[in-house]
Design brief:
With 182 residues, this protein is an alpha/beta fold. 46% of the residues lie in helices and 13% in strands. It folds into two domains: 105 residues, 3-Layer(aba) Sandwich (Oxidized Rhodanese, domain 1), CATH 3.40.250; 58 residues. This is Inner membrane protein YgaP.
Length: 182
């Protein structure tokens, strides 16, 4: 997999136009992103559609960025698996971009998804315990949430996180680009 550091990418950007996609969640992108990036969330990434949307520039490198480099390397692998080879992972991600003093766009902040999951899971467990004082079967709610957390820890898949990510407050109302700086 090809990689590039943020300083090298910035130099390429000053020499001409680059195609940089940010594969973080829309709310993360809205909070802060590299000035030249466009949002293409990893969860809905379709490599063929992204390449088709490049208006004849499929031969030019596609640079992929996330927060720190993990999700962008997963996205690059998706492109490679789909047969697209000219994709480049941005080392260090948006954190490195920002730390290097390169231009960013800042927008509205929101609670991180995992913090939202923790709040929801904690609330449901406490609710299940409290309701079990009325009827013992309500303790099943707490057991269900606990089992879901175990499942998420073992498999790395969290249905609650997927559900919460689709909530209106975790969506961007400007067509998905989340570029507003309100």
């Amino acid at each position: 997999m090809q990689t590039i550091d943020v300083k090298q990418l910035s130099e390429k950007r000053s020499g001409g136009e680059i195609d940089l996609i940010d594969v973080r969640m829309p709310t993360e992108f809205r909070e802060v992103h590299a000035e030249c990036a466009r949002s293409v969330p990893l969860e809905s990434l379709d490599p063929a559609a992204v390449m088709a949307s490049r208006n004849g520039n499929a031969g030019h490198p596609l640079y992929v960025i996330c927060r720190s480099g993990n999700r962008s390397s997963q996205a690059c692998q998706k492109f490679l698996d789909a047969g697209f080879e000219n994709v480049v992972n941005v080392e260090g991600g948006t954190m490195a971009w920002e730390k290097a003093g390169l231009p960013v766009v800042r927008g509205k902040k929101s609670l991180p998804l995992m913090q939202q999951v923790q709040i929801t899971a904690g609330f449901l467990v406490v609710l299940g315990v409290a309701l079990s004082l009325l009827h013992p079967y309500f303790i099943g709610l707490s057991a269900f949430v606990g089992a879901g957390l175990m499942f998420a820890g073992i498999t790395g898949l969290c249905p609650m996180a997927s559900f919460i990510a689709k909530m209106p407050w975790n969506q961007c109302s400007d067509g998905g680009s989340c570029c507003s700086t309100t």
